[in-house]
Each structure stands twice: as C-alpha cells, then as structure tokens.
Amino acid sequence: MYDDPTVVALVLAGRAGDREAWDQIVERYAPLVWGICVRLRLSRADTDDVGQNVWLRLFESLSTIREPAALPGWLARTTFNECLRVLRTAGQRVRVEHPLDAEPAVDGGYDLVEEELERAERQLALREGFAQLRPRCRTLLSLLFADARPPYEQIGGQLEMKVGSIGPTRERCLAELRRCPALAALIEARSRQAEGGEVHAL
Amino acid sequence: MPYEGWSDDQTLLTELDKAWYAAQCVPAEFIAAGKRVWTASDLDAELAELIYDSLREPAQVRTDRAELRALTFASATQTIELEVSDGGLLGQLVPPGRAQIEIEAQDGGTTSRSSDELGFFTIPRVPDGPFRLRYRTDSGVDVVTGWIAI
After folding, report:
1. Which residue(s) pair with B102 in the sheet?
2. Rounded distance between C-alpha atoms, residue B145 and residue B52, angstroms
3. Nearest residue of B to residue A169 by CA position?
4. Which of B:63-92 have CB within 8 Å of A?
5. Closest CA in chain A for residue B57
6. Which pTM value belongs to this model?
7. Across the interface, do B146 and A60 touch by the CB < 8 Å criterion?
8. Is B19–A56 a contact, with Cβ atoms under 8 angstroms apart?
C-alpha cells in the first residue's frame, strides 16, 4: 500500500458531498473489486451482488474513514469478505450435492487480497500515467500495445512519422510515462517499502 | 517486484497493455451500478443483507414447487421475509409493525407501499431488474436491503 494523494483528495471531497468524487472513486477501484471476484470465480450475478454491497458499505463508511489513504486496502478486504459470504452460501449447496467435497476453502486469502491490491494499484497508476501523456504518445503507445500491432509502416503513416523515428519516440514516451506523478509516486513508495513499510488501518 | 522491470521498455509496454485490458474487462454496467449507490443511499439506514435465498438451497431439500422463491434479509435489528407469489411479492417485517416501504429499482424508479400493524405488506408486481427495499418503521428505524433480482 502507498499513499496515493489522489485517493485522499477524492475521499475528502466525497465526504463533503461531491458526487463527481464518488464517481471517480468507483471508476478507479471497480477493477480492484471486479478482479477479486474474478480470482474467486464468482458468477456475474454474485459479482454484481458483491459490488453493490461493497459500494454501499463504502458509502456508509465515507464519513468515518480515519485514514483515507488506506481506502484501496479497505476496499480489497471488504470485497474479499463479501466474496466469502457469497461463496459460503453457494458452498452449502455444493456440500450437499457433492458430500465428499470439502468446504470451499479459500487458501491464502491474505496473499490473494495483497496480490490483487498491489496489482490494482500498479495498473491504476499505469492507466493514470498513460492518460497524462501527450496525445501523440498515447496514440503511438496504444498502437504498439494493441493486440494485433500494425506494422511500423502503417503506424508511421497514421502518425505522419518516419518509420526510423518510431523506436526513439517510443523510448521518449515510455520515459515520460515513468516520470509522470502517478508512476513516480508508486515507484518511490515501493522502494521505500522494500526498506520497511508502514501499515495503515482504516 | 514488477517495478524493477519497468526500467525495461518492452516490459513497461506489456504492463501498460495489461493495465488497459484489466480496465476494459470491467463491464460498464458494473461501474454504473456502483455510481448509483450515491443517489440511492442514506448514511443513516441500516443495511439488511440477504441471509437466505431458496434458489441457493440444495435441490434435495426444495419442495416440488421449486418455483416458489423465498428470501430473507437481516440487519442488526430487523428481518424482512419475502416470498414471490403470482408475479408479486408478499413481505413480512420482523419485528412486526407499520412502516413506509420504498421499492427502489436500479434505474432510479421507486414505488411506495405500507405494511400493516402486523408488519405484512404486498408488492403487486416484481420489478423487472435489480431492486431493493428501503423502509422506515413508525418507531424510526431506517433500513435498506441489499440489491436483489427476482
């Protein structure tokens, strides 16, 4: 976990009644909630159920959150607990239909939550960093990571760029991405964490 | 740690691709439902969670009339029992008492009903999509259930 200044600002604004801030919180962290449900192989209906309860709980807790920076961790744990609630209900059915099956064990729950949290924060930082890039960099990079990457000639044509300068431009754009505040903050926090991290409680 | 890999251009580009893809995988409706919580919420309401759903019970213990759907929601102080009947819902509040009940659809539409002094109420038509119940008892308890679709 790291102190993302954006999340602190969003929580404070949401608490003050800013609807836009709430929407942004949901947009930023929906992939985290969704990702944990996918990891635990919940059905779509159960995932919707979990999502509703997580957002409702967050809404209810918004005014009492003591440590806004700890929000992502809180969301990850709340989602995990909501998933377990759903799985327990489903598990009762599984046990009767297949009596030999053990209880739906979710081993390593703590690791799973930490992994998903780490991944979601990293990917969020990457998306936000990407959104802050110059439009030309965004277009070039999105063409480069596209599933079916077009040939350099085509990319060059589209961006009115010499094929020979695609490589160097790509390098510059990625360097810009690493330097953008969202990524720089995360990279710095992770290196600090490696020396002995701090633990937040919400 | 993946961050060390970020010094490598190809790795960073792949990570960016994954980050983009992860967000694309989340259905727009899932995000929209989360946003709607803002308009439909009330900080003072107790959340009543689904604690029983006949659909999730083992097939062996279901009656022959498996179509009969029964649900129970519970909060710290309140229980709501629902039964689907003839396309509508029969409801029972525990502890019994009069209450104003709002049926809130996810698209924002609401319908109002009242329970009688025994806590019994009816909803003539089951809403089409996901909905939830919110009610205030005459004794002043404010309760909202989790979302459910019948």
Report:
1. B112, B134
2. 13
3. B9
4. none
5. A93
6. 0.65
7. no
8. no
Q: What b/e string do you get for A1-24 counting C-beta neighbours within 10 Å, with b at 16 or more?
A: bbebebbbebbebbeeeeeebbbb
Q: Say how many C-beta atoms besides its own lie within 10 A of residue A71's C-beta.
A: 25
Helices (H) and strands (E) in chain B, counts: 3, 9
What is the side-by-side strand order in the sheet with B99-105?
B110-114, B99-105, B131-137, B142-145, B46-53, B70-74, B79-85, B88-94, B120-123
Q: Which residues contact A66 (CB under 8 A, 6 or more apart)?
A: A201, A202
Say if the Cβ atoms of A96 and B23 lie within 8 Å.
no
Tell me which residue in B23, B53, B61 faces A31 most closely, judged by beta carbons: B23
How large is the ipTM? 0.83
Burial of residue B148, with CB atoms counted within 10 A of its CB: 0-12 exposed, 13-18 middle, 19 or more buried: middle
DSSP annotation of A159 reads H
Q: Which residue of B has its CA nearest to A125?
A: B19
Going by the DSSP 8-state scheme, the letter that residue A121 receives in this structure is H
Cα of B118 to nearest chain A Cα, Å: 29
- Residue A68 is classified by DSSP as G
Tens of pLDDT, residue by residue, chain A (202 residues):
567 778 999 998 888 778 889 999 999 999 999 999 999 999 999 999 999 999 988 988 887 888 888 999 999 999 999 999 888 877 655 554 554 444 445 566 778 899 999 999 999 999 999 999 999 999 999 888 877 778 888 888 888 888 888 889 999 999 999 998 888 888 887 777 766 655 444 4
B146 touches chain A (CB under 8 A): yes
